[in-house]
């Protein structure tokens, strides 16, 4: 039998060996773990550098939607590359791509935009926004590029409208002409006005494209666009000017509209309290700032606001019936002008004599030309019209 002291010493020695073995194993495991982690980090960093350095074709459908962890679809979840050999836990959830989406239109609500040369902008009218199957898309140019020189070219650069009802072409434009309801070349704005009616039982996709103008032009465009199921939001009347010229002198002119009593009394009473009619005048010629936007109400209002002319408007019965009357002052003598009658729209549809209807975006009527006199209105060389034969003073004719 071994002495007690030897047995105790042996037990201590065995315990020390066990502790040493445990420490060696722990250290080895830790070092192996750290080496593996460092190697994984280096490999991941190298792979990440390769991925970031490799350009991906923007047009290829290489992205897939990621649902939440429970497998349900989630449109707000973002996107990740569809690489089958990547574990999702390593990729993580990606942020949504930079938005290049269409502006959503609302029935009978205008949207104002700025657009640079060579750019296309996109809009969509969702099916639920339209109470009917026929929809009118209309637009007005409010500002256009300006000429660089003193002699601007006659052809003013115009915007272009493209419309699609196919989900396969949600960004219609000059480089995307499949499934269009407009011609492949689009609908070119006509003197700042464009309108198209669409039979549709689906979403409607609209593209507005700005051309690259010639070197003689500089600047951008501003425009407004709207969709309406009740008729064109913006209107242009090409049938007539809806206006008579009474007379002119060397610096002023007097005009009246057609008889407004031919429409219903309710509308006539509204006009008396809140006259929706306006008249604008611009010198004839390519130098006119409104040239190329003559059919746009927002352009006429904007450009006329920069002129030195002044127009006073009333509703009068002086010429029989009920008419809007316009007295324009500040004209140049012996000068030819283009005149424009417009009607502002509102929540209520304005019904004009002859069946015309003016909706929220207003209406521009066919333009007309008139001349001011070289001398005074008493100059016998320029007799007054039949309506003013007994008076040669336009100011006295126009009693405010």
How would you explain this protein's 3D organization?
The chain folds into 3 domains: 64-94, no CATH class; 103-233, Jelly Rolls; 237-397, Immunoglobulin-like. Helix content is 19%, strand content 29%. The radius of gyration is 37 Å and the shape is flat. It has helices at residues 4-53, 88-91, 265-273, 297-305, 394-397; strands at residues 63-65, 79-81, 103-104, 111-115, 120-125, 134-143, 146-147, 160-164, 187-188, 193-199, 204-209, 217-218, 221-228, 235-237, 243-248, 252-257, 277-283, 310-316, 323-329, 336-343, 350-351, 357-358, 363-365, 368-371. With 400 residues, it is an alpha+beta fold. A hairpin with a 6-residue loop joins strand 18 (310-316) and strand 19 (323-329). A 5-stranded mixed beta sheet has the order 3-5-11-8-9, with no helix packed on it. Strands 14, 17, 20, 23 and 24 form a 5-stranded mixed beta sheet that branches.
Inertia-based shape: flat
The Rg value, from CA coordinates, equals: 37 Å
Class computed from helices, strands and strand pairing: alpha+beta
Q: How do the strands line up in the largest sheet? A: 3-5-11-8-9
Following the backbone from N to C, one meets helices and strands in this order, namely: HEEHEEEEEEEEEEEEEEHEHEEEEEEEH
Major sheet size, sense and barrel closure: 5 strands, mixed
Average pLDDT confidence is 74
Separation of the first and last Cα atoms:
138 Å
CATH topology of the largest domain: Immunoglobulin-like
**Helix count from the secondary structure assignment:** 5
CATH architecture of the largest domain: Sandwich
Helix content: 10-25%
Strand content bin: 25-35%
CATH domain class of the largest domain: Mainly Beta
Note poorly predicted spans: 1-9, 27-99, 377-392
According to DSSP, the number of beta strands is 24
């Amino acid at each position: 039998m071994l002495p007690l002291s030897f047995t105790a010493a042996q037990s201590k020695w065995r315990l020390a060996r066990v502790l040493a073995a445990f420490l060696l194993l722990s250290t080895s495991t830790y070092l192996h773990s750290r080496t593996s982690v460092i190697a994984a980090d280096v490999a991941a960093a190298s792979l990440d550098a390769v991925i970031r350095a490799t350009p991906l074709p923007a047009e290829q459908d290489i992205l897939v939607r990621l649902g939440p962890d429970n497998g349900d679809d989630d449109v707000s979840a973002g996107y990740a590359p569809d690489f089958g050999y990547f574990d999702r836990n390593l990729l993580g959830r990606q942020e949504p791509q930079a938005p290049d989406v269409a502006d959503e239109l609302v029935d009978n609500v205008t949207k104002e935009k700025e657009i640079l040369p060579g750019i296309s902008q996109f809009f969509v009218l969702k099916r639920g926004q339209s109470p009917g199957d026929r929809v009118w898309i209309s637009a007005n140019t409010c500002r256009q590029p300006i000429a660089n020189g003193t002699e601007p070219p006659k052809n003013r650069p115009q915007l272009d409208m493209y419309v699609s009802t196919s989900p396969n072409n949600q960004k219609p434009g000059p480089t995307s002409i499949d499934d269009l309801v407009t011609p492949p070349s689009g609908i070119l704005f006509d003197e700042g006005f464009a309108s198209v009616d669409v039979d549709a039982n689906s979403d409607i996709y609209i593209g507005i494209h700005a051309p690259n103008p010639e070197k003689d032009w500089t600047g951008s465009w501003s425009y407004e666009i709207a969709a309406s199921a009740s008729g064109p939001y913006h209107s242009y009347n090409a049938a007539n000017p809806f206006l008579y010229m009474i007379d002119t002198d060397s610096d002023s002119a007097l005009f009246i509209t057609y008889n407004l009593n031919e429409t219903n009394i309710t509308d006539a009473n509204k006009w008396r309290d809140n006259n929706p009619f306006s008249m604008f005048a611009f010198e004839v010629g390519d130098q006119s700032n409104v040239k190329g936007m003559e059919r746009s109400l927002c352009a006429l209002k904007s450009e006329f606001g920069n002129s030195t002319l002044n127009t006073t408007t009333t509703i009068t019965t002086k010429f029989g019936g009920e008419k809007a009357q316009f007295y324009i002052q500040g004209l140049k003598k012996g000068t030819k002008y283009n005149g424009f009658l417009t009607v502002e729209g509102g929540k209520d549809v304005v019904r004009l004599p002859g069946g015309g209807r003016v909706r929220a975006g207003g209406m521009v009527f066919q333009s007309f030309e008139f001349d001011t006199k070289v001398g005074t209105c008493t100059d016998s060389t320029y007799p007054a019209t039949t309506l003013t034969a007994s008076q040669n003073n336009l100011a006295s004719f126009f009693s405010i």
